[in-house]
Amino acid sequence: MLGQLLLLFTQSPYYAGRSTGRLTQTVLPALIRGDFVYVADRGCLVAWASWAFVSDQVLDAIKAGNLIQAEDFDSGAHLLCLDFIAPFGHAIALHREIRRVHGARKAVWFRMTKGDRFCEVVSNGK
Q1: Which residue from 28, 10, 30 is spatially nearest to 19, judged by alpha carbons?
Q2: Where are the domains of the chain?
Q3: Backbone angles phi, psi at 30, to 5 degrees
Q4: CA-based, 20 to 30 A from 71: which of 25, 27, 77, 94?
């Protein structure tokens, strides 16, 4: 799965500029913990989302520009979306999978620029 996942990430302009090391910093801990959903089409990975449950302190650190560490993935109650990638038009199916797992739970999402600086944290308002 990791090979298909890395290939999927290269199909998105947002993720294509990220280093493999940076991707594995968020992808591997999510894989190990089972904190992800994906969509496959004819056996090929076409969409992926991963998350972590972080503490107030970790969320503040991310807002300050720090990167999430493996030990932060289960540090609290905030549902933090790490990756949401659907470069082939499977975003609705991926969203359905996330809702299947988490229901209407409030989530905190983040996006990093290519330089891995913090951009924004947005709540879905639930």
Answers
A1: 10
A2: 2-123
A3: -65, -40
A4: 94
